Amino acid sequence: MRRRKFVALLGGVVAAWPFAARAQQKAMPVIGVLSTGSPSVSSGLFMAFRQGLSEAGYVEGQNLAIEYRWAEGNYDRLPALAADLVGRKVDLIMASSPPSALAAKSATSTIPIVFRGGGDPVGGGLIASLARPGGNLTGVSFVPNELTAKRLELLSELVPQAGVIALLVNPTSGANTERVIRDVQEAARTKGLQLHVLKASSESEIDTAFASLVQLHAGALVVGADPFLSGRREQLVALASRHAVPAIYAWREFADSGGLISYGASLTAAYRLVGTYAGKVLKGAKPADLPVQQPTTFELVINRKAAKALGLEVPPALVARADEVIE
Asked: What SS3 class is residue 69?
C-alpha cells in the first residue's frame, strides 16, 4: 500500500473513532421510583435514598436520572404506574412499600427491583428467602407487624388507666392487616384489655374512624404501620390531639410531628440502605444474590410536650428506656 494512501486511511479511522466510542458508551442509568405516598410527605426519606446512592457513587443529575411515580395513597394506581416505568425501560425500580413492590413484580420479571418493605416478604410472595431472594427483587424489610403488639404494651404502660384501646389499620393491605389484627388481639387478651379494630383507607375514613373511637370511649389508639397511614401523618397527629386520644405510632417522624410516642426502626436509615443497594445493582450485582436486609435496632421516642398536653405523666421507667425524649 502506498504511504500516502495508508496515512489517509489511518487518519479516517482516527477521525471516526470518537464517534464510534460515543455510540458504544452506555447512556445515563435511570431509576424509576414507585411510591405509594406523595412528594410532600416523602421528601426527607427520598433525600436519604439519594444519599445512599451517592455513597455508591451515583448522583442524581450528574451520572443518574430518577423518574418518580406517586400513587398519593391510592393503591389502585400502582399497577398502571409500574407499567409506565417498565414501558420507559428504566434500569431499576425502587419500590417504597410492599404494595409498590408487588405491583412492580407483577409488571416485570427482568428489570431489577429494590424495595423498602415490611411484614413478611417471603410469605407475601415477593422473594424466595431473605438470604437468597431469587428472581429480580431484593431490598430492606422491616418487621413492623411483629412490633405492633409491642406498641400496645408500651401504650398500656404509658396509659395504664385505658381499659379500652383501638387499633387503626388499612383494610386494603390484605394479609398484612389481618396478621396485625390477630397479633394485637392476642396481646390485648393477654393484658385483659378490650380492643376495637377501626379501618381506614382514605382521608374521610380516617375522620370517621376517630369519630367512632370517641363513641367507643377508647382510652388510647395504636396506629398500624401501613404506608397509607404513614402518609397521613399530619392528619392523624392533629386528630389525636383534637380528640385528646393518646396514640402510639410506628415511626419517629410521628413523634417529631407532635405525636405522643413511637416505636420502630429508622425509616431514614432504611431508605439510605435501599439507595446503597440500588447502587450495587446498577454496578452489576444481581438482586437474587443480595440478601434482604433487616433492621436490628429500634427507636423508642417519647414526645413529653404531647404527653403534658394530654395530662399524662410519663413513667420514669419508660423515660429511662427511651432513645429520645422530645421536650
From this structure: strand
